[in-house]
Specification:
Helix 3 crosses helix 9 and helix 6 runs antiparallel to helix 9. It is built from 9 helices and 5 strands, in the order ααααβββαααβαβα. It has a 5-stranded antiparallel beta sheet. It is α+β, with helices and mostly antiparallel strands and 256 residues long.
């Protein structure tokens, strides 16, 4: 889908604010400069999300969501974290798929931080049941979905602009799966997807929208494949693993 270049939504002041927040991550500093955050980061991010939503109608309509729901909060949840800094030092957006908004599943991600931007797509922090369902779907015992995923991750049009996740791999076959499974290399993963990291200054250029949308569009078949085992025909709910499976061996803590 062709995407026109738009006017820059972020400015040098946007990056300056994030760099200042990284050095002064406290409520007094932030509260005194909150109008700058609202003007230079929140408003531009919401505007960018709206433009990306418009582009999504052409190739990923199930991921179109209201901009305020897509933009992630800058406030950190410090209740169970040893890091008590109150703010994230980035602005970010996560486009979940319809039916998976309250969990995770496969989606699209954009982040601006003081030094870089990140453009990513895939399954990053699946719920335990989702992780099991994806592994079950990719298992060679269930068909050739693992071959489809490998072909997507090796596609030169995709890898020319996005790099596959390292996967946070396990060192042995997960509980419930055979060490002899032909898809074991993929079953060891705890996340599947692709990402690109570019200098923060790319966010100041009129080509930012095109940079994001073109990558998202190329990653769409991958996202759809990974979401397939998570979406029922009507329920939109993730499958659950057998009760005999030790769920503690699956998934990552939800940091969002």
């Amino acid at each position: 889908m062709a995407t026109k270049s738009s006017s820059p939504v972020f400015t040098a002041e946007s990056i300056k604010f994030l760099r200042g927040l990284k050095r002064n991550n406290d409520r007094t500093w932030f509260d005194e400069r909150k109008p700058i955050y609202e003007r230079e980061l929140k408003a531009p991010m919401l505007a960018l999300i709206e433009e990306i939503n418009h582009a999504f109608t052409g190739f990923a309509p199930q991921h179109v969501r209201p901009a305020p729901k897509v933009m992630m909060r800058i406030y950190r949840d410090i209740r169970f974290s040893p890091n008590k800094q109150p703010y994230k030092t980035n602005v970010a957006a996560w486009w979940a798929r319809a039916g998976l908004e309250k969990t995770s599943g496969g989606g699209y991600y954009f982040e601006l931080n003081p030094t870089s931007i990140t453009i990513a797509a895939g399954v990053y922090m699946p719920e335990r049941e989702q992780l099991f369902a994806i592994r079950q779907y990719l298992s060679a015992e269930g068909g050739n979905h693992h071959a489809q995923l490998r072909a997507m991750l090796a596609d030169k049009k995709l890898t020319s602009v996005l790099t596959p996740f390292d996967g946070l791999k396990l060192t042995r076959a997960p509980k419930g799966f055979s060490p002899e499974d032909a898809a074991l290399d993929l079953l060891l993963h705890r996340q599947w997807g692709v990402s690109a990291t570019l200098p923060a200054e790319e966010a100041l250029k009129p080509t930012l929208l095109k940079q994001i949308v073109s990558r998202f569009e190329r990653a769409t078949p991958l996202v759809e494949l990974l979401n397939t085992p998570l979406i029922g025909e009507d329920s939109g709910k993730a499958r659950t693993p057998p009760t005999s499976v030790n769920k503690a061996l699956f998934g990552l803590p939800n940091a969002r």
